[in-house]
Design brief:
- The complex is a heterodimer of chains A (about 450) and B (about 120).
- In chain A, about 55% of the residues lie in helices and about 15% in strands.
- Chain A has helices spanning about 1-10, 15-25, 40, 45-75, 80-115, 125-130, 140-150, 150-155, 160-180, 190-230, 235-265, 315-340, 435-445, and strands at about 30, 35, 120-125, 280-285, 285-290, 295-300, 305-310, 345-350, 350-355, 360-365, 370-375, 380-390, 395-400, 400-410, 415-420, 425-430.
- In chain A, strands 11-15-16-14-13-12 form a six-stranded mixed β-sheet. In chain A, strands 8-9-10 form a three-stranded antiparallel β-sheet, covered by helices on one side.
- The radius of gyration of chain A is 28 Å and the shape is elongated.
- Chain B has two domains: about 15-75, Orthogonal Bundle (Arc Repressor Mutant, subunit A); about 85-120, no CATH class.
- Chain B contains five helices and three strands.
- The two termini of chain B are about 15 Å apart.
- Classes of the chains: A alpha+beta (about 450), B mainly alpha (about 120).
- Strand 3 (about 120-125) of chain A pairs antiparallel with strand 1 (about 1-5) of chain B.
């Protein structure tokens, strides 16, 4: 089930990346696949042939990645769910990056050969920079954070999750403010176009962050409702989370394409006389490197997104962090998740120990009121906080409206049901045989 | 108005900004009373240090091309520059006219060229 949700949430990403990359082959702001061309370049046969080749490769790449993902999902390997999944994500990112870089290089070579390289000048619009910037008020984010935090008053058990959501909502305010470079979208000397492009991009950027903040508020309220109304069950939480994730993605993608469409339309007649060409600052058309630029965060040339200036120390650190996270940490995380599971239950020093990844549960024998062996797990359990993998359940759960703590492998029973003198319920199991569990019961005295 | 900054040039960036703003005023791209960006906004726009932007504005203020007002911010000065032509400007013009003479231009040809360039700012 987990694997199906994981793959279901990501198998469409290669399609999205393919559509975005194909859109990169449309001229906007005089750019196609990260290369700046004069107007003559838009009708040049060699350029058009390369752009068609680029688009074809994106489609082939997309189909191959989706097919590989489906194969991993359908065939699978018993007990190994996460490693292939994370490796597939890495492959998707690297393959698309390399393809883009390859075609960017080919187009740059044509540009050089045709003599379309222009002196590298930095364009800065005095007129656009003089226009006061109107940004979304901080109250949009504060209000979202308050809504996200309010459930903590009513549900003390989950306070951490609610306050985390509130913190992320406030973080969106910082993201909107500091991850955007307030620079005019100058393409040529047409001030009106520059100002229109700048305004459209800035609005889209602000809207995305406000939307994210309110999504966190909705998630927080959703979690609260699902615990306050047990009839709704864990399925409701999962559905809510998936629906919100998809809605946010859909709105963000729609905004990205809207901005790209505006950029394409407004700069359709640009590329004659003076036009901005910063190709020498963009390695492979994707990585910004300009030692003369004092800013760490810079805007991507098309669309809404931001990136970092690799010539600045902060930019290097951020990029290294992202690379380590993607290339190294994700596969390592995959191995860790796949290896995660409960260890066999043992009795040590008068306590029953359920050991596993993270915190161990240590139950003093004298505080155990009853213990029994069970062959089937309750079907209406809802995870409140903890791990919920196909192969490992650990943490706080709600069962029949009551609280329970789990540490078990749901695939291999039987399991041990332990009730403490204070009424706390534990469901434990480390994959031991019935005889092992019976031996434990004998020692517990159940 | 678009500034075009050349970071490979021997001319300092603040001087490039100053020169291009003066030219922008002379050619009517920036009109008297028009608001200019704040120092912070100009630095952000150009990707330069605030000190560099501040130095360019300081020079333009000293020469009378712009004025700073607490309420209106930095604006293009109205009318002629009170300071008149700077001695450096006169020296620069002398040098350029010398170059034109050495290039073989007659007085009339040099004056025609000067008139043409001068009138670019009055169209």
């Amino acid at each position: 089930m987990n694997a199906l949700i994981m793959w279901g949430l990501t198998l469409w990403v290669p399609v999205l990346m393919c559509v975005l990359n194909i859109n990169e082959a449309k001229f906007k702001k005089n750019l196609a696949v990260g290369v700046t061309f004069p107007r003559a370049g838009r009708e040049d046969a060699e350029v058009l042939r390369l752009l068609a080749g680029f688009k074809r490769e994106q489609i082939v790449l997309c189909l191959a990645l989706v097919a590989l993902g489906v194969l991993c999902l359908v065939l699978g390997w018993p007990g190994i769910d996460f490693l292939p999944y994370f490796l597939w994500i890495d492959l998707m990112i690297v393959a698309q990056f390399v393809s883009y870089a390859r075609w960017n290089g080919k187009l740059k070579a044509v540009k050089r050969a045709k003599g379309w390289t222009v002196p590298a000048l930095r364009a800065a619009s005095v007129t656009a920079a003089a226009v006061p910037v109107k940004r979304p008020g901080w109250w949009w984010f504060i209000a979202a954070a308050v809504v996200a935090a309010v459930p903590a008053v009513f549900d003390r058990e989950m306070w951490f999750a609610y306050l985390l959501d509130a913190g992320v909502a406030l973080g969106c305010w910082a993201g909107a403010k500091y991850l955007y470079r307030n620079r005019a979208e100058a393409v040529d000397e047409n001030d009106a176009v520059t100002q229109a492009l700048t305004r459209v991009r800035r609005r889209a950027w602000d809207r995305v962050w406000v939307l994210c903040a309110w999504t966190m508020a909705a998630v927080s309220v959703g979690i609260w409702l699902s615990t306050a109304l047990p009839a709704a069950g864990g399925g409701a939480v999962m559905l809510l989370t998936v629906a919100l994730a998809l809605a946010v993605c859909a709105v963000a993608v729609a905004l990205e394409f809207r901005v790209r469409r505006v950029q394409e339309k407004l700069t359709a007649s640009s590329g004659e006389g003076f036009y901005v060409d910063e190709d020498d600052k963009w390695i492979w058309g994707q990585l910004y490197y300009d030692p003369n630029d004092s800013r760490t965060v810079v805007n991507n040339r098309t669309g809404v997104n931001s990136t970092v200036n690799l010539a600045r120390p902060g930019g290097k650190v951020l990029m290294a962090f992202v690379l380590i996270l993607l290339i190294v940490a994700m596969p390592v995380m995959g191995v860790c998740f796949d290896m995660m599971g409960p260890e066999p239950l043992v009795i040590e020093d008068g306590t029953l120990v359920a050991a596993s990844w993270g915190e161990d549960y240590v139950l003093p024998l004298e505080e155990i009121e009853s213990a029994e062996i069970i062959d089937a797990l309750p079907e209406n359990g809802v995870r409140v906080m903890g791990i919920g993998l196909d192969s490992f359940l650990k943490g706080k759960f709600k069962i029949d409206g009551g609280d329970a703590t789990l540490c078990l492998d749901p695939r291999t029973g039987p399991w041990l049901k332990v009730t403490m003198t204070d009424g706390t319920l534990y469901l434990l199991g480390g994959g031991g045989s019935r005889e092992d569990i019976l031996a434990l019961l004998g020692q517990i005295g159940g | 108005m678009l500034l075009k900054l050349d970071f490979g040039s021997d001319q300092p960036i603040y001087m490039q900004i100053r020169n291009q703003i003066v030219l922008g005023i002379a050619q009517g791209q920036l009109r008297p009373g028009e608001r200019l960006p704040t120092i912070r906004a100009l630095a952000e726009e150009c990707g330069i240090n605030m000190m560099t932007a501040s130095k360019a504005y300081q020079l333009l203020r000293q020469e009378g091309y712009i004025t700073a007002d607490r309420r209106a911010g930095t604006v293009v000065a109205s009318g002629k520059t009170p300071a008149g032509p700077q001695p450096e400007t006169v020296e620069g013009l002398r040098l350029r006219l010398g170059e034109l003479r050495l290039a073989g231009l007659s007085v009339e040809e040099a004056m025609d060229l000067c008139r043409k360039l001068y009138e670019e700012g009055t169209k």
